[in-house]
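Lecture notes, unit on protein representations.

Consider one protein chain, 229 amino acids long.
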Amino acid sequence: MIKSIENIDESKISIIRNEIMNLFINRSTNFIVFSIPEHFDYQLHHISGAEHCFSGLKSLDSYSNINQNILIGLSRISKSIKELMFNIGFCNNPDYSGIIKLIKAQKILNEVCIIHCYLGRNESCNIIEESLIKNADNIQYLIIDREPITKFLSYLINLTNLTIGSQDWNDTNWNNLYGVSLPFLKVLTADYVPSNILASLIENTKENLTEISILYIQKYRAMNELKEH
């Protein structure tokens, strides 16, 4: 927004930005919820008072195309994030080093949402999925809008709420979800998930499963198949 201001010298933009950042990031503030916009490239963790400001962070929303050093810096400060949303954009040479360190640093990560902001399968996301295994005992809520690339879901045995789907009915591979057992699952929301995969997932849960939602209209046909099964 600063850059959009007319009649301002480029050399003064950084000065104005620094002053604004210092208004919000200091030893007198403590963020609980924080959102980092796309293409953000400002080293927040180097600001005086950042360690106090972000030490109690509980919820973080971020994008994959930001400077990963920001997330690496936050991983040293923020250890008690409970809710994490990560938006993955398309990139030929993606760098997820920051989000991986941040995930692994958390002690009570409970809710995770991974959103892909593009069509297509990104095999490099496997490192994000595998990093969640470290928090397998704590994660209870998971939203993922792509078929899993790895078998990480089989480790999240304490999941109670799962929302999973794909933006593309064709060209998907759901083999890593087949046979997964989630004994404490209560709520399952699925979109564009094949009926045989859904049947396997439902059969491998226990009596805790009380709500099943299938969003896309084609899935109503799949639900009928499940009933017959």
